[in-house]
């Protein structure tokens, strides 16, 4: 069926809630909490849709009007109260109003400055609604059959005395005319029947029987309500026909909320999780317990994202865990670092930058002193990077004198001497062609190490090399090794 504009208003009043909205004028009337700032509160679209699924169209709207009995006057700075007593037109069933919706006050009032006036309407139940409070209005036209409407009396019973309270507070010196309230009319809109009363005959709960008032030829049978229906009955045997639920509501009554929703214990409804959450404990993006396919669960923020943020790692359950405090980036586990905040990376651990003369001891997880021959070292006390003063570097050790087969020398950029031989030479007696042993793949020719495969000695070419004195260059000497070295 189609909802009318009045049905939609009833649904808004019934399902809206104050939530986190803060105001000093929240008060309770027959329909619930109301405020001049927020009306009936925050619109709950999900609750409104679920309520609309089982909604029954409200009864026809009636209108009852009554005019004030006499004129009233008030001097500046005073307050005027004018009352109307009504039965809600109970004497006429065609216009009788028993359950209020909108209340309209039509005013004929003369005044030199409208912004000095405040108007409030007070119902028989004591509910107070502010109709006028516009301080910046400097018009002198007053209100000529001006209509003010309020919904703050929604669902109240109109029978009784209604009071119109008018206060005149001069904002500045003005003519001393008195306020002249010539007439005001109270117009009540509502229904004679309760809008929330379902005219359909309810189905009895399971185990109950309904005895007909008068015996009939054939006894009408009633199906029991679904086991998830609460004490308000049902309109049919299925779970979606329940008028209220024992456990939780999701358009239909369920014993537990399905995946992608969470249980709201206050409203007893299944509410949807935030987008991306597969399961959650609340509606926020930071209430996720697990994520939908293709997303990762951040254990630190309880949120779901397409990738894990920097400073986290991904485990085999697609969760983002925080890296160790020393790691800027890590993989698979918190302490498997791939980048460091401070220090340097040793294997998959971040180690501190040790001072001169010390190195990081992996087993002891601290900085230890280098050997006395080393100025700096790494991975061990004798794994020297730079030698101390008076020592020469031979391979990865610092020595005071070179071992047999090596000769002392210098290297550009190093503050200490080296024990070494020419390239590809394992043992030598000095600089230049003094090699006595070559590395694998090289041949010793005239005390020089030559690559075995490159010494071809093309006769014509090598003779030209020798004639042009190119044997001094390494490339030609390598290619024409016999011509340049053996016959030199």
UniProtKB/TrEMBL annotation:
Residues 210-222 have a biased composition (Acidic residues). It comes from the Eukaryota. One of its GO terms (molecular function) is serine-type endopeptidase activity. Residues 192-222 are annotated as: Disordered. Residues 57-194 form the P/Homo B domain. One of its GO terms (cellular component) is membrane. Keywords: Cleavage on pair of basic residues, Glycoprotein, Hydrolase, Protease, Serine protease, Signal, Zymogen. InterPro entries: Furin_repeat, Galactose-bd-like_sf, GF_recep_IV, Growth_fac_rcpt_cys_sf, P_dom, Peptidase_S8/S53_dom_sf, PLAC. Residues 451-488 form the PLAC domain. SUPFAM superfamilies: Galactose-binding domain-like, Growth factor receptor domain, Subtilisin-like. GO terms for biological process: peptide hormone processing. Pfam families: GF_recep_IV, P_proprotein, PLAC. Coiled coil: none annotated. PANTHER family: PROPROTEIN CONVERTASE SUBTILISIN/KEXIN-RELATED, PROPROTEIN CONVERTASE SUBTILISIN_KEXIN TYPE 6. This is Proprotein convertase subtilisin/kexin type 6. It comes from Oryzias melastigma (Marine medaka).
């Amino acid at each position: 069926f189609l909802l009318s504009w009045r049905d939609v208003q009833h649904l808004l009043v019934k399902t809206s809630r104050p939530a986190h909205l803060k105001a000093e004028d929240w008060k309770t009337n027959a329909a619930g909490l109301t405020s001049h700032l927020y009306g009936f509160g925050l619109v709950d679209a999900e609750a409104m849709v679920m309520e609309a699924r089982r909604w029954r169209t409200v009864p026809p709207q009636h209108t009852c009007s009554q005019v004030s009995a006499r004129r009233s006057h008030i001097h500046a700075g005073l307050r005027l109260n004018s009352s109307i007593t009504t039965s809600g037109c109970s004497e006429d069933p065609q216009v009788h109003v028993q359950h209020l919706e909108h209340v309209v006050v039509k005013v004929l009032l003369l005044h030199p400055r409208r912004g000095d006036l405040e108007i409030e309407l007070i119902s028989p139940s004591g509910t107070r609604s502010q109709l006028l409070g516009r301080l910046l209005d400097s018009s002198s036209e007053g209100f000529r059959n001006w209509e003010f409407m309020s919904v703050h009396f929604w669902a109240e019973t109109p029978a009784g005395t209604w009071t119109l309270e008018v206060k005149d507070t001069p904002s500045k010196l003005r003519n001393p005319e008195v306020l002249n309230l010539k007439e005001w009319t109270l117009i009540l809109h509502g229904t004679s029947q309760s809008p929330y009363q379902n005219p359909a005959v309810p189905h009895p709960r399971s185990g109950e029987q309904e005895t007909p008032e008068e015996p009939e030829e054939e006894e009408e049978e009633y199906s029991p309500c679904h086991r998830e229906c609460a004490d308000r009955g049902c309109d049919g045997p299925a779970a979606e026909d329940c008028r209220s639920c024992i456990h939780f509501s999701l358009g239909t009554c369920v014993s537990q909320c399905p995946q992608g929703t969470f249980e709201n214990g206050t409203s007893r409804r299944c509410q949807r999780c935030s987008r991306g959450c597969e399961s959650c404990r609340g509606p926020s993006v930071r209430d996720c317990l697990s994520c939908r396919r293709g997303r990762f669960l951040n254990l630190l923020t309880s949120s779901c994202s397409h990738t894990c943020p920097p400073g986290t790692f991904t485990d085999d359950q697609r969760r983002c865990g925080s890296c160790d405090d020393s790691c800027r980036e890590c993989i698979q586990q918190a302490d498997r670092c791939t980048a460091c905040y401070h220090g340097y990376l040793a294997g998959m651990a971040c180690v501190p930058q040790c001072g001169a003369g010390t190195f990081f001891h992996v087993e002891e997880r601290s900085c230890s002193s280098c050997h006395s021959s080393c100025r700096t070292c790494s991975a061990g006390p004798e794994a020297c990077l730079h030698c101390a003063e008076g020592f020469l570097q031979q391979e990865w050790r610092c020595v005071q004198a070179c071992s047999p087969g090596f000769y002392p020398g210098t290297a550009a950029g190093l503050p200490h001497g080296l024990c070494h031989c020419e390239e590809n030479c394992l043992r030598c007696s000095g600089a230049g062609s003094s090699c006595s042993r070559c590395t694998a793949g090289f041949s010793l020719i005239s005390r020089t190490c030559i690559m075995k495969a490159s010494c071809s000695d093309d006769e014509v070419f090598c003779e030209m090399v020798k004639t042009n004195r190119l044997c001094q260059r390494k490339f030609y000497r390598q290619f024409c090794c016999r011509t340049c070295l053996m016959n030199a």
